[in-house]
């Protein structure tokens, strides 16, 4: 009897397909890779003068779509609603410079980090030499700005609890407040700050040493292990064959693309 039961169980297992991964299944059946991001985060995702989306994440996503033979579909959405947009099925994944945090990780699953950044400071020039790192800004006499809902906001709460905080819908609004002398400092991701500082020489002082450790990862809804496996495999492949370095150098070690957005 035991042998018969074992044989029946094995037969049933062999005839029952493995649980499907909804994300990969939808990508394959629709022929589309729908990717969420919030355009305006240099050099990860931006809107060019011709209306096309360009950037580091955009190129990585397009390369991914080509690799599996599907169409790349950009889904630009406001940052504060990007996880709900993902979870309601309007895109397959977030490829938008999202920092992996414990709070986000209880809502979504992340693939392995594809780049590591941190928070740096753009400072009103009147403070040059007086403020040398984030600790000097931790006082009620200073007003710091950042974009709402970002790790910049989290960093201010954690490292600058005594400072006054102004939050803005976009990073462009926030940094202009410093450039216009209305706030003392702008705290945001190093890549954006480095590019902004290079573009606007003399307007702001960049304290470029990051004071946080922030790995960025691609996010998918929970319960899609095959998609995570695919993303990690794809990342290993492009880092091994030179594709990643080629795309990285285009956006981080060259400024030719700036003409497309200015």
- SSE-based structural type: alpha/beta
What about the largest sheet?
5 strands, mixed
Question: How many domain regions?
Answer: 2
Q: What are the secondary-structure elements, in order, as H or E?
A: HHEEEHEHEHEEEEHEHEHEEEHHH
What number is the mean pLDDT?
91
Number of helices: 11
CATH superfamily of the largest domain, by name, is: Periplasmic binding protein-like II
Q: Helical content, roughly? A: 40-55%
Q: What is the level 1 CATH name of the largest domain?
A: Alpha Beta
Strand content: 15-25%
- Distance N terminus to C terminus? 77 Å
Shape category: globular
The fold-level CATH name of the largest domain is D-Maltodextrin-Binding Protein, domain 2
Spatial strand sequence of the major β-sheet: 10-9-11-8-12
Question: Can you name the CATH architecture of the largest domain?
Answer: 3-Layer(aba) Sandwich
Map the helices and strands.
Elements: H1 2-15, H2 22-30, E1 32-37, E2 46-47, E3 53-54, H3 56-68, E4 71-76, H4 82-87, E5 93-94, H5 102-105, E6 108-110, E7 115-117, E8 119-123, E9 143-147, H6 151-159, E10 164-168, H7 171-179, E11 185-189, H8 190-199, E12 205-207, E13 214-216, E14 219-221, H9 225-241, H10 243-252, H11 258-261
Parallel strand pairs: 1-4, 1-5, 9-10, 9-11
Antiparallel strand pairs: 2-3, 6-14, 7-13, 8-11, 8-12
């Amino acid at each position: 009897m035991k042998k018969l039961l074992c044989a029946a169980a094995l037969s049933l297992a062999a005839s029952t397909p493995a649980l499907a991964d909804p994300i990969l299944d939808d990508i394959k059946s629709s022929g589309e890779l729908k990717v969420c991001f919030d355009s305006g985060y240099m050099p990860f995702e931006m809107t060019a003068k011709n209306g096309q989306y360009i950037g580091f994440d955009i190129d990585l996503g397009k390369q991914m779509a080509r690799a599996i033979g599907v169409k790349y579909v950009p889904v630009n959405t406001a940052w504060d609603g990007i996880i709900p947009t993902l979870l309601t099925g309007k895109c397959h994944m977030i490829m938008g410079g999202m920092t992996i945090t414990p709070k986000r990780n209880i809502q979504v699953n992340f693939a392995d980090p594809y780049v590591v950044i941190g928070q740096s400071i753009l400072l009103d020039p009147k403070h040059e030499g007086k403020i040398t790192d984030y600790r000097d800004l931790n006082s009620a006499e200073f007003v710091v700005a950042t974009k709402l809902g970002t790790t910049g906001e989290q960093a201010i709460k954690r490292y600058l609890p005594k400072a006054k905080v102004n939050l803005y819908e976009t990073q462009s609004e926030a940094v202009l407040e410093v450039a216009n002398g209305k706030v003392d400092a702008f705290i945001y991701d190093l890549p954006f700050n480095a590019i902004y500082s290079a573009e606007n020489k003399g307007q702001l002082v960049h304290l470029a040493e990051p004071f946080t450790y922030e790995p960025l990862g691609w996010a998918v809804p929970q319960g899609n292990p095959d998609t995570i496996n695919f993303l990690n495999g794809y990342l290993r492949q492009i880092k091994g064959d030179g594709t990643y370095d080629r795309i990285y150098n285009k956006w981080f070690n060259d400024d030719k693309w700036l003409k497309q957005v200015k």
